[in-house]
Design brief:
It is found in: Cell membrane. The protein is an alpha+beta fold and 370 residues long. Helices cover 63% and strands 10% of the residues.
Length: 370
């Protein structure tokens, strides 16, 4: 008989399936638990399959509880239990495991207690790169964002006071106090315009028009700040990835950091699966390629040549006749660095030694291919 899986083995299994980046198993647990929580609120569906819904919910809760216990144990052995327990991940794991049982113990209705399963959704956040990028953007752009928020609140309060002054006599129920006017100001400044409270005096309508325009401006500022921050963060990430790839290519090994940074700005990365045609014979060439990782196969007349990590190809079309002379295909998953024709000429002008190396390699290959 096979031996039962030991606790350390289960620990490794759970850590593998519920690590920092959620695996498919954990994603399925989150998705299934949230769906069951929603079905719990639909009386006909819950009455028809309440046994299944309850069983699945308890199974999801058991998974997240066990996950939390395993992480606590791992943190204890690593002597980081306090750090983990007070971290955002640790607090979320604790709430995901404890909140529902605690609510049931305190006597809450089960349908109300299981609504706390909404916290399970936040467990997917660490596995979404875009959300981590958003967090960095919010931190880096916190100053401008808070400045616009202060401007928004100032306009909101000012609009409420002015509308209270203009409309309180005409509409005492809707604008009888500044807090009552705040509802109108929020709906108008956010350009939602529910229409349940509207000014009726001519001057009040004029102020309302100005508030709507201010709302568009404020949200336009927020959008611009976030868009600029995302663009800068994306450029930074792309630069770091390209830098890492460039630094691994032996062809650029002799360059200093400043020159590598110059080259990195010119190159763009391309990740390709195996058996992908990169260059087709007879096509016009407008770029060359450096192999940062992987392998390609060059189909020459009568023979096939394999180029591995650190090699480059496609340069012959840039140095002379711009027609591709061979078919080139990836043999396995590869990462290529692409240098376009304009940037190629600029790079050769800035770094003549690289130009000489590429030219010498092109002549050598031309002699071999004759």
């Amino acid at each position: 008989m096979p031996k039962p899986r030991s606790f350390p083995a289960l620990t490794l299994f759970v850590m593998a399936t519920a690590g920092r980046n959620l695996t498919r198993t954990a994603y399925v647990a989150v998705l299934t638990g949230v769906v069951m929580m929603v079905l719990l609120t639909v009386d006909p569906a819950y009455e028809a399959a309440h046994h299944w819904v309850d069983a699945v919910l308890w199974a999801c809760l058991s998974f997240f509880t066990f996950e939390w216990v395993v992480r606590l144990r791992h943190a204890f052995h690593a002597r980081r239990i306090r750090t983990y327990a007070l971290s955002g991940r640790g607090l979320l794991d604790a709430v995901s495991a404890i909140a529902i049982p605690l609510a049931l113990i305190l006597g809450f209705d089960p349908k109300t207690a299981w609504l706390l399963g909404i916290f399970w959704m936040f467990k997917v956040v660490p596995g979404i790169p875009g959300l981590r990028q958003l967090r960095r953007v919010l931190v880096l752009e916190s100053g401008p964002l808070l400045s616009v928020l202060v401007l928004f609140l100032m306009v909101l309060f000012l609009a409420s006071v002015v509308m209270y002054f203009l409309e309180r006599d005409a509409q005492p129920m809707a604008f009888g106090s500044v807090p009552a006017a705040l509802w109108w100001a929020v709906a108008t400044l956010t350009t939602t315009g529910y229409g349940d409270v509207v000014p009726i005096t001519p001057l009040g309508r004029l102020i309302a028009a100005l508030v709507m325009i201010c709302g568009l401006g404020v949200f336009g500022l927020w959008t611009g700040i976030l868009a600029t921050g995302f663009a800068a963060e994306t450029r930074r990430d792309n630069f770091l990835r390209t830098w890492e790839s460039v630094s691994k290519v032996p062809f650029f090994a002799a360059l200093g950091p400043a020159a590598i940074a110059d080259v990195t700005h010119m190159l763009r990365t391309m990740d390709l699966p195996a058996r992908t045609m990169i260059i087709r014979k007879g096509q016009a060439g407008d770029c060359m390629y450096f192999i940062a990782a992987g392998e390609v196969e060059v189909d020459l007349p009568g023979k096939k040549v394999t180029l591995g990590e650190g090699a480059f190809f496609g340069e012959m079309a840039l140095l002379g006749n711009n027609t591709r002379s061979a078919n080139i295909t990836t043999t396995r998953v590869s990462r290529l660095l692409v240098l376009d024709l304009v940037d190629f000429r600029l790079l050769m002008a800035r770094h003549p030694d690289l130009g000489e190396t590429i030219d010498a390699e092109a002549k050598r290959r031309a002699l071999e291919n004759k």
